[in-house]
Design brief:
CATH topology of the largest domain: Immunoglobulin-like
Number of domains: 2
Number of strands: 6
Oligomer: single chain
Strand order of the largest sheet: 1-2-5
Shape: flat
Strand content: 35-45%
Order of helices and strands: HEEEEEHE
Radius of gyration: 26 Å
Helix content: 10-25%
Length: 130
C-alpha cells in the first residue's frame, strides 16, 4: 500500500469522526441549556363569570410544576364571542407575583368592558413569567 493511500484513508476516517461528532444528538446536554431551565407553569383552576355591573371575571390558580422559581407571573385572558372571534383581552399578575418551584398562587382578572362582556361566550387563558 502506498503512503498516499494511507493518508487518504486516515483523512477519510478523521472526516467521518468530525461529521459524527458535529451531527450526533446529545440529549444529555439539553438540560443545561438556557431554554430548558425555564419554569413550567400550568393553570390548574379556572372560573369565568359576570358580575352585576357587567364586568367579566376570570379566577384561577397557577401551579409551578417546574424545578425553577417563576418570577412576575402574568396571566392573560382572551375573550371570544359565539362565532369564536376575539372581542377583547385583559391580564393580571398572580398574588404573590413570584411562585417558587412546586408552589402555586391565585389570580383574578377583571375585564371592564360591559358591551364586550355581554357578548363573551368563552375565554382562553395563558400564563408566562420572566
Amino acid at each position: 500500500m502506498r503512503k498516499r493511500d494511507v493518508l487518504i484513508g486516515i483523512s477519510a476516517l478523521i472526516a467521518l469522526v468530525i461529521i459524527f461528532m458535529v451531527f450526533s444528538p446529545r440529549s444529555s446536554s439539553l438540560g443545561s441549556r438556557e431554554y430548558g431551565s425555564k419554569p413550567v407553569l400550568k393553570v390548574v383552576v379556572g372560573r369565568f363569570s359576570r358580575d352585576d355591573l357587567g364586568y367579566c371575571h376570570v379566577y384561577g390558580e397557577v401551579k409551578n410544576v417546574g424545578s425553577r422559581d417563576a418570577r412576575f407571573v402574568k396571566v392573560t385572558a382572551a375573550f371570544y364571542d359565539k362565532d369564536k372571534n376575539i372581542i377583547g383581552s385583559s391580564y393580571a399578575y398572580t398574588s404573590p407575583y413570584d411562585i417558587p418551584a412546586g408552589g402555586s398562587a391565585p389570580f383574578h382578572i377583571i375585564w371592564m368592558d360591559e358591551q364586550g362582556c355581554r357578548m363573551a361566550e368563552w375565554v382562553k387563558v395563558w400564563v408566562e413569567s420572566s
